[in-house]
From TrEMBL:
Belongs to the immunoglobulin superfamily. Contactin family. The keyword Membrane applies. The gene is CNTN3_1. Residues 29-114, 125-216, 230-311, 321-364 form the Ig-like domain. SUPFAM superfamilies: Immunoglobulin. Interacts with PTPRG. Its main location: membrane. Keywords: Cell adhesion, Cell membrane, Disulfide bond, Glycoprotein, Lipoprotein, Membrane, Repeat, Signal. Residues 1-20 form the signal peptide. This is Contactin-3. Coiled coil: none annotated. It comes from Xenoophorus captivus. It is found in: Cell membrane.
């Protein structure tokens, strides 16, 4: 039986509408979870590391990963595998696996790239075993004992043992342990300071701890050191880049006889807000939740009756880009003009790049 041409035309239109409805239900990948930075203790080297990546889309997305800009061939890699979109790395290697990772999610509609995530390893090597030379000073003289931090990765904290564990050097206006250099500073040596000093370094990520060979501090017998003006030995850089919301710490400590007094001020004369804290007899200035109002010049003044000395530096504010306007899905007819605009806040002012299916667009 032959169908009438009108019915055939109607069936053709219905088929086309069905195809349009089916294709309209497709959409490209959109992120549900992007990878985050990982810091892995070196003593967990036999364990697996997982970089997360998850997107929704129709059809369901597939995934590819790159390391330092080069796609990882999982078919030839026995140590790396996918679980969903997550990248799992086994038998971790301190040298091969460190770097910047990025995930691509793609389907038949399009592709998107994730934020970049850094994989790092935290470790703390041992001090080199050698006998340290004794340090000989006069009573009343200032002295710096060097820690000589071993190679490491991850946040470190420092302390000094006096003579034997568990007797640690107590910090006061005369003694200071820098958390930047690890060195021990004694503004004015007294007879009670004579003894052996050992630097102890701790890694806050691995929880590992190592200690140096002892350094002997002895007094010279050719008299007492006379009074002298402050000499600033611990200082902060001329320019300190500080991110929004971070805790900024500045150190300042001086040798001198009499023991110098440390004070802080802002270069513009504006008083410190109540959130600012002074620690260790003013040797440390701490600014929690750093904001744009906190940027500017800072000065540390060390003073005793013999004179004064000053150190100065500038805190620079920066903030990661944050979107204030992004584009939305758009349906257009052929030959129509498309206008998308995206804007972000940030310091310094953000620059922009556009990508189509994970590939950067070039201006034409």
């Amino acid at each position: 039986m032959t169908l009438p041409w009108k019915l055939l035309l109607l069936l053709s239109i219905i088929d086309r509408l069905t195809d349009c409805l089916d294709s309209a239900s497709y959409h490209g990948p959109r992120w549900r979870m992007e990878p985050a930075d990982l810091f892995i203790p070196i003593d967990s080297i036999e364990e697996e590391a997982t970089l997360t990546c998850d997107a929704k889309g129709t059809p369901p997305p597939q995934y590819r990963w790159s390391l330092n800009g080069t796609f990882i061939n999982l078919g030839l890699d026995r140590r790396r595998r996918l679980s969903g979109g997550n990248l799992i790395i086994g038998n971790l290697d301190r040298y091969q696996d460190v770097g910047m990772y990025q995930c691509m999610a793609y389907n038949t509609v399009g592709a998107i790239l994730s934020r970049r995530a850094r994989l790092q390893f935290a470790y703390l090597d041992h001090f080199k075993v050698h006998t340290r030379s004794a340090v000989s000073v006069r009573e009343g003289q200032g002295v710096v004992l060097l820690c000589g931090t071993p190679t490491s990765s991850g946040d470190l904290t420092y302390a000094w043992v006096f003579n034997e564990y568990p007797y640690f050097v107590q910090q006061d206006n005369r003694r200071f342990v820098s958390q930047q250099t690890g060195n021990l500073y004694i503004a004015k040596v007294e007879p009670s300071d004579v003894g052996n000093y050992t630097c102890v370094v701790m890694n806050s990520i691995t929880k590992g701890k190592v200690q140096s060979s002892p350094t002997s501090l002895i007094l010279r017998t050719d008299g007492v050191m006379g009074e002298y003006e402050p000499k600033i030995e611990v200082n902060f850089p001329d320019n300190v880049p500080s991110s929004k919301g971070s805790t900024v710490t500045l150190e300042c400590f001086a040798l001198g006889n009499p023991v110098p007094e440390i004070t802080w001020r802002r270069a513009n004369g504006v008083p410190f807000p109540s959130k600012v804290k002074m620690k260790y007899s003013n040797a440390v200035l701490e600014i929690p939740s750093f904001q744009q109002d906190d940027m500017g010049g800072y000065e540390c003044v060390a003073e005793n009756k013999m004179g004064r000395n000053m150190a100065a530096g500038r805190l620079a504010f920066y903030a990661k880009p944050q979107w204030i306007q992004t584009m939305k899905d758009t349906a257009l007819a052929i030959e129509e003009r498309l206008h998308w605009e995206c804007r972000a806040n940030g310091k310094p002012k953000p620059s922009y790049a556009w990508l189509k299916n994970g590939q950067q667009l070039q201006s034409e």
